[in-house]
Amino acid sequence: MTQMLDRLARLIGTGTPVEVFRSKLDVAGTLGFVVGVSPDVLLLHVIEPNSLALNGYVAYRIKDITSYNANDSFIGRAMRLSGQCASIPAGINLSNLPSVMVSAADKYPLITIATERKRPGAIFIGIIAHTSDTEVSIRKVCTKAHWRDPERFKLKRISMVSFGDGYTRSLAALVKAQELQGGNG
């Protein structure tokens, strides 16, 4: 595990894309640039593989990563040629996944979490309504940009946190527009 952490940490700032696999949780890997590593968390600046565009950040627990592939072939060269390079988001605490979640919620209008072992394929988008030592309450927002009642999640069950992607930025803009029009519960 320490060897993997050291190798991943050495990729920060190199412009080398990495594909991360979590075989017990994902069908496919996640492509991105490593922008942060701690003993508990890997933070990637995500690359959309079809458009070769940067699209937000995702944090995974190190213990869930089963393998990775760093390859500076076509994708890395294409990203550099188009002027796209990873940026490290300021103020994100990588101590553990709950710390990533709380610090991202302070900087971004919406966050996404997943509890993939309990609810495979489901994601939850919203804002933090309350935190404790063992749980977080997320006030979720639906695809129609309406607020829903908060839902509680055990911190130990959260396996992924993402933020700053095009979908959540667009959803946040829709929520704000509806609130300005007086139409959001």
Structure description:
It is a single chain. With 185 residues, the chain is of the alpha+beta class. The protein has 2 domains: 1-88, Roll (SH3 type barrels); 90-185, Roll (SH3 type barrels). Helices cover 23% and strands 35% of the residues. The protein has helices at 2-10, 74-81, 97-107, 166-180; strands spanning 18-21, 30-37, 41-48, 53-61, 67-70, 111-114, 124-131, 135-141, 147-154, 160-163. A 10-stranded antiparallel β-sheet has the order 5-1-2-3-4-10-6-7-8-9, with helices on both faces. The longest helix is centred in the last third of the chain and has 15 residues, at 166-180. The N and C termini lie far apart (46 Å).
Structural class: alpha+beta
How far is it from the N-terminal to the C-terminal residue, by CA?
A: 46 Å
* Percentage beta strand: 25-35%
Low-confidence stretches: none
Q: What's the main sheet like?
A: 10 strands, antiparallel
H/E series? HEEEEEHHEEEEEH
Mean pLDDT: 93
Features:
185 residues; SH3 type barrels; ten-stranded antiparallel beta sheet; alpha+beta
